[in-house]
Description:
Number of strands: 23
Helix content: under 10%
Shape: globular
Number of helices: 1
Structural class: mainly beta
Order of helices and strands: EEEEEEEEEEEEEEEEEEEEEHEE
CATH class: Mainly Beta
Strand content: over 45%
CATH architecture: Beta Barrel
Low-confidence stretches: none
Radius of gyration: 20 Å
CATH topology: AttH-like fold
Amino acid sequence: MPIPADEFPLHQAPYSLAHAASSDRNFYDRSYWNAHDRTGEVFLITGLGQYPNLGVTDAFACIRRGDLQHTIRMSDVLGPDRMNQQVGPYRIEVIDPLNELRITCDAKAQEFELDLHWRGSFPAVDESPHVSRNGAKIMLDAQRFAQVGTWEGFIRVKGEEIIVDPATWVGTRDRSWGIRPVGEPEPAGRWVAEPKADGGFYWIYVPLRFDDFALVFIAQEDGDGLRTLNDALRIWPDGRVEPLGYPKYDINYRSGTRIPESATITAQAADGSPLVVEVECLGHVALSAGCGYGPDPQWTHGVWRGRDWIETATYDLTNQSDPGIMIATQYSILDHVGKATLDGKVGYGLFEHSCAGRHTPSGFANGGSMAP
């Protein structure tokens, strides 16, 4: 049966928009958002995903206050109306595409409420395609766009109300779709008996908002430092996108860990002049602690948990005796509030980083290596 979206000339394949053009079980369509007040003392991350070949949709919201990370996650059947971005009490409303959106979560019983209005500060920008293989198998084949902006509204969590003032609250978002591992793990096949050598995984994602422009940096490397994904862009208010070359990333890690404390990004402006961004890492959220990313044994995106499923969890990120917390904070993706300076100008945004396994350029000889 056709769905309402089929009325619009949006088709890219001879199928109803109720069906993905790919039969890969890992096809997904997702949004990610973060919001903060520039201090790092409060940091919200949230998102919603649809997995049409699994018949699942889910959403989450997570807020870091002090040492505690509070999370709510919801999952349900993916219905035929793909334009209805709602899971239980959580909803995303598109007011003006690519400019204004609203996120609400009315979970009073779980003590987790949001009403947040997003306004883009600069035009959204396409990232380079994200593609990676594991041997012959495509593991990631996705497209994303990114945007920086401001927030207005309120957050109520565990009896505390936080007023979100657009004069101080900023954030970043991305929309992505394509193929990436989702749902229940697939059988590893031959690799169970013949595990691969530690190739290493190094990832940096840094979208930043300044008053006059936005910056987006992305790098993915293997253990030898071979860069398989590189993006470096400056976005101007009139929509111009300036390429910034092939940046060098120097990260200062907290001693005895792989947790970044600051970084220097050295790029090149279109006129050939150096562009040096200094980033200070403020408060962070561990994406593998309740947000559905990475090796979280409790919940990951696309996993079927039944109809109308909703759950909350609280994590103490200082509890390094908990193996799950140790993995989430040392080897998985950390999202930091980033305070950036460039030629005397100050901006804020996201400093997202993961360094797992070997990364020779950083001095990590194997998965057990830590910063001196």
